[in-house]
Amino acid sequence: MFSDRARIFIKSGKGGDGHVSFRREMYVPNGGPDGGDGGKGGDVIFEVDKGLNTLVDFRHSKKFCAQPGEPGGKRRCHGANGKDIVLRVPEGTIIREAESGKVIADMSGENTRQVILKGGKGGLGNQHFATSTMQVPKYAQPGQPSQELWVNLELKVIADVGLIGFPNVGKSTFLSRVTNANPKIANYHFTTLAPNLGVVDLGDGEGFVLADIPGLIEGASQGAGLGHEFLRHIERTKMMIHVVDAAGSEGRDPIEDIYKINEELEQYNAGIAARPQVIAANKVDLVYSGDEDPVERIRAEFEPKGYRVFAISGVTGEGIRDLLWYVNNELKHLDAKPITFEQEFFPEDELLVADLPYTVEKDEEGVFVVEGPKIEKMLGYTNLDSEKGFAFFQKFLKDTGILDKLEALGVEEGDTIRMYGLSFEYYK
């Protein structure tokens, strides 16, 4: 079964904790600190695999976690780094943050490999915190926390040209005749339940990629039928071949059908509706010579509006080569770059902000009170008695915006700041 969407949980590896230990050897009674650093946590990486064309691998497996880094050891031993986890997806996959729907990455074009979540850095061992006044530091840094996200994966096929039209107008037959694709063909609505891709080879290096977008129905732009499932696959195409049943073999009016499909495109995305479009009046092999020529009727209606109309037959091949060469030449005038989606969500920045909740308030006694779980954790592993440890904590307050918040509340030199029972005198 074709699968073009998935929702998964991803988590990078936590950094390994730094180690607290002291050198203990014979004849070295007062050995210094020798605690090693923790290893870096593994990254979550997405990579394009051109051998894949669906997201079916994510239908049953929903959680993907990189390895945490190992803690440091004695004798300055560095903890091993955690292994990265590499998730392989088909080209054209868009990764979105699940809650906001913002784009994290578009795995297409030159972007074939991207780190989505970075593993936490390993904590420093106590060997780094020795100073002239603190020669036996009994603390080390914990590793940085992991990052985690629920993301939506969405596959949008990459093709130069999209075949659009109502069900049973002959798109799959047309595709099978002009490309190397072998779509299943039958006479019932929603025959095609997955986009079919094929390469049109016109010889001498000329050609393009063609996608059969499954048949649309009225109301598709509002999600009727499988509308939204299919319309997303038109978003990357540079132009469209609008296939209609010129013979009206199922009792439909081809002119009315063209207007209805274009209206659905306009309601879904006006930018897509404005892209170049050529009309393929199909099934002319079913038009009887004594009848009114339906192709001329379509031409009279749409060519004044800027649409070229070609009379074709997917069964006999009539008119198809002229249509393909016209499309091929039109593509040369369009932007050669693939249509890609810009990044809107930056996990490293957004998750950092989300991971640092704190409150800064001024109480009735004029004391500035700063609280938050991250601050409590920081105080737990920082030696404020050492010059280096206090400088490290000050940098933390600055980087998280706490100092800016204090100044906004009017803190002045000599004011008292309290954090979880510890009191400090503010100075610049």
Automatic annotation (TrEMBL):
User: Pfam families annotated for this entry?
Assistant: DUF1967, GTP1_OBG, MMR_HSR1
As for subcellular location, the record says:
Cytoplasm
- OCT domain segment(s): 350-428
Q: What is its main location?
A: cytoplasm
Record domain Obg: where: 1-158
**Which cofactors?**
Mg(2+)
Q: Domain OBG-type G spans what residues?
A: 159-332
* EC main group: hydrolase
What keywords is this UniProt entry annotated with? Cytoplasm, GTP-binding, Hydrolase, Magnesium, Metal-binding, Nucleotide-binding
Which residues hold Mg(2+)? 172, 192
* Superkingdom, natural source: Bacteria
Per UniProt, subunit arrangement is: Monomer.
* HAMAP family with a match to the protein in the record: GTPase_Obg
- What is the role of this chain? An essential GTPase which binds GTP, GDP and possibly (p)ppGpp with moderate affinity, with high nucleotide exchange rates and a fairly low GTP hydrolysis rate. Plays a role in control of the cell cycle, stress response, ribosome biogenesis and in those bacteria that undergo differentiation, in morphogenesis control.
Q: What is this protein called?
A: GTPase Obg
Q: Which gene encodes it?
A: obgE
